[in-house]
Amino acid sequence: MLTWRAAALLALTAGTLPLWQSPWVGLLVLAGGVALLSLVDFTLAAALRDLALSRDGARTVRSGETATVSLRVRNGSTRPLRAEIRDAWVPSAGATPYSHRVVVQPDESAVLDTTLTPTRRGDRPAVRLTLRSYGPMGLAFRQRAGRPEMPQWTLRVLPRFDSRRFLPEKTARLRTLEGATVTRGRGQGTEFDVLREYVIGDDVRSIDWRASARRSDVLVRTWRPERDRRVVCVLDTGRTSAVLVGAEPRLDAAIDAAVLLAALASRAGDQVDLLAVDTAVRASVSGGRHVLLPRLVNALAPLQPSLVETDFELVVGEVLRRERKRALVVLFTALEPGALGEGLLPVLPRLATRHKVLVAAVHDPLLRDLTSDPYLHAATLRTLSERTRVKHALTRHGVEVLDAPADTFPSLLADTYLRLKRTGAL
Asked: Does domain 230-422 have CATH number 3.40.50.410?
């Protein structure tokens, strides 16, 4: 193939046409000369079949952060490689630079770095690699493009986890709750810890009279927050999860809050499971307490909303089948009368009788700011009224409901978990 240099050379030499007796003969001679030079240049270009390509670099990166993937080009031909290499990724991968210019001597290698700044989570593959090998005069090139010869590479973009800024404060409250900084006290539904001697100020209801009789001293029971409980995070990935709340889909806000809850529950000694369901189970993580967070984040990374109505019968059935013991089931969904009234409420009693259920819903922060436009004002009031009606319907079944704006949703969810743990309601 010819480059723009061949056309420029022909245009430059065309200035000599008035010196020819026949301009047409001169044009043919000049065009033939340029074509001959281009053929020689094409022949001297390094053969692409002698190139060896390989990749190395990052496999995962958190959304919004930067990763580097390297492409190694080894020239196995006997001629120098003068090449332009275009390494194309999907647009949301944020790849720069788009192309590389490189000169590689025979039996040598060059490493080309591509910087990726993804804007969306999920798997971001390299989709196309185009190689052009130019001749020494730059008049012609050999080209090879496509997927068969391209070394495959996929960068997994993990969720942002912006809510990790709340984790130190919630962990400190958890330590206080567990008795690391205050004296362990009596609480309904908490676990027995040890016996100790009675001191002035202790609750007399905590006195163990049998143990006191055996020891001839007054002993009291001490209690600790419940441990080894099960927390099940259920993500609704149906059509309502695709709605924007603030600047991100509802599913992304739910993932951020679920990761924070999982991290906090793991530090509290509870076992955490996760399900993502719409009309089928899209993700499932059951890892207990050890090395949970990396596997959880990796499983949530490729999760995307599905434009289907969520099958809550399947959701309840999966939870009941997987969780035999009583657990805290946190259902991340939307407080929509249609979706919950027709789908969740009919099957909710089956779930609420076996487990403690918390429905966690996130809404757009704009709902807090009533606009001066009368039509938008009326629409906002109607939306708030419908959400309140749905919350009342859920609480009648003994379900906890958290309805919070996106900016404070993860923090309020963690506070709700700590409150339930403190009161022994898990």
From this structure: yes
